[in-house]
Design brief:
Length: 139
Amino acid sequence: MSGNQTFTIIKPIAVKNNFTGPILKMINEAGFKIKAMKFTHLTKQQAMEFYSVHAGKYFYEELTSFMSSGPIVAAILEKDNAVADYRKLIGATDPAKAEEGTIRKLYAESMSHNAVHGSDSDENAAIESDFFFSKMERY
Ligand code: CMP
């Protein structure tokens, strides 16, 4: 049974390009409720920790430098079947392969500059949410 929460990051390039509002609008209109949200700026060390599952891969250095290059918006989203439905809303990791109308098709520039992150499983949604938010920061 799939859970009802997922975790997202609006990445530095999307924040810099003023896409935070349009992306949050799409999230709301798709039926997700925002359970927690913060505007923050990861250090390189924090980005390396958050993406440690990718440590050693050829894109890890670029990914973690980019993710610590500017402010981001992190959020916990709630909806039935949240992980799968959010991944559908954001589209494929590579924006060139993302379906029309998805967040990445509309707002991403490249594989690493792909506008948003979305958890790939309930387990990772919980781990990633715990990385950013304490219990007191969830409503
Ligand atoms: P994200 O959903 O944040 O999860 C891991 C990120 O690594 C992914 O989005 C991409 O931005 C990045 N990524 C994954 N695969 C590649 C790749 N082959 N080349 C460059 N970046 C990648």
